[in-house]
């Protein structure tokens, strides 16, 4: 299969490219720059120049592909709402070029969209359209495209990690290094789901190959790790103290990350494992935090 991948030069996207190439697929990877194009070529993919703001470039990529994986997202959280709206527009553009063709489109969301209520375990069979996270726009647009005849499925991500990056926790590590203390909120019992980036890439490939319209998958290896344990692992690696903060103290310490720091983001992947025959094998989140590369510490 010839697969068009957005976000192909990013953290998750580059792992997806490697997974697809290794499985024998041809990859057309979106790249904004010549440097990115060179990295894609070195990885065995064909570069496709364009970006998320250039919707015509995305449609041209779709025209050359048998299937599409959309994992690009602007992670500048200072304009998170605007970035979520941009993602909605991108999904609409990709869908308009795929409607009625049967060619699969896998889009990306967060596991929180599968939580029936704040703090409850997220599952694949749940979609909460009233979720307070603006990222809900991606799945809402996915529903629109499904109804328009697009073979669309959703892959929900937890904290995706290796020894260099750990999802939102990458920012928590930077804060702990900057402020000399690793923090959690309250008693730190809220849990975050996680998965190693290589395991996540495999779920994307399996979802694409299954091509089941309307399916929602959770790329979750660990259902939930307590934030107190995460903060302790960061503290141990950086050799700084760990402290608990009140909700009132959180904004001053965490900045924009305060909106997530006290939320339970646990998630199940029981159904995903069964239908995709997926068994994660990568290191756990705490192990990767303990082994963080010197450059990220």
Beta-strand fraction estimate = 15-25%
Uncertain runs: none
Number of helices: 12
Strand order, biggest sheet?
3-2-1-4-5-6-10
Rg result: 19 Å
Which shape, going by the Cα principal axes?
A: globular
The biggest beta sheet, please?
A: 7 strands, parallel
C-alpha termini separation: 39 Å
Category by helix and strand content? alpha/beta
What average pLDDT do the residues reach? Answer: 95
Number of strands: 12
Task: Give the % helix.
Answer: 40-55%
Compressed to H and E, one letter per element, the order equals EHEHEHEHEHEEHEEHEEHEHHHH
SSE topology:
Layout: E1 2-6, H1 11-22, E2 26-31, H2 34-42, E3 46-49, H3 55-63, E4 67-70, H4 80-98, E5 104-110, H5 136-147, E6 151-157, E7 159-161, H6 169-179, E8 182-185, E9 191-196, H7 197-210, E10 216-218, E11 222-226, H8 227-238, E12 242-245, H9 250-254, H10 258-261, H11 270-276, H12 285-290
Parallel strand pairs: 1-2, 1-4, 2-3, 4-5, 5-6, 6-10, 7-9, 8-12
Antiparallel strand pairs: 9-11
């Amino acid at each position: 299969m010839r697969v068009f991948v957005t976000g192909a030069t990013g953290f998750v996207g580059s792992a997806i490219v490697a997974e697809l190439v290794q499985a024998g697929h041809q990859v057309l990877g979106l790249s904004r720059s010549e440097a990115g194009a060179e990295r894609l070529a070195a990885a065995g993919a064909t570069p496709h120049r364009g970006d998320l703001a250039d919707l015509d470039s995305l449609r041209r990529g779709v025209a050359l592909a048998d299937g599409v994986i959309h994992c690009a997202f602007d992670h500048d959280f200072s304009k998170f709402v605007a970035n979520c709206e941009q993602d909605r527009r991108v999904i609409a553009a990709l869908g308009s070029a795929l409607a009625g063709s049967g060619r699969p489109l896998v889009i990306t969301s967060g596991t929180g969209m599968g939580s029936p209520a704040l703090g409850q375990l997220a599952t694949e069979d749940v979609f909460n359209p009233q979720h307070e996270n603006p990222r809900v726009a991606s799945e809402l647009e996915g529903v629109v495209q499904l109804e328009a005849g697009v073979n669309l499925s959703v892959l929900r991500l937890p904290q995706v990690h290796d020894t260099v990056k750990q999802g939102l926790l990458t920012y928590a590590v930077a804060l702990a290094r900057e402020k000399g203390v690793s923090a959690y909120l309250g008693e730190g019992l809220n849990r975050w789901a996680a998965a190693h980036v290589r395991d996540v890439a495999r779920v994307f490939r399996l979802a694409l190959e299954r091509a089941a319209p309307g399916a929602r998958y959770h790329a979750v290896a660990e259902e939930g790790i307590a934030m107190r344990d995460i903060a302790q692992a960061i503290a141990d690696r950086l050799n700084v103290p760990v402290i608990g903060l009140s909700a009132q103290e959180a904004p001053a310490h965490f900045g924009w990350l305060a909106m997530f720091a006290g939320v339970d983001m646990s998630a199940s992947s029981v159904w995903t494992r069964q239908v995709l025959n997926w068994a994660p094998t990568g290191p756990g989140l705490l192990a990767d935090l303990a082994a963080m590369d010197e450059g990220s510490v």
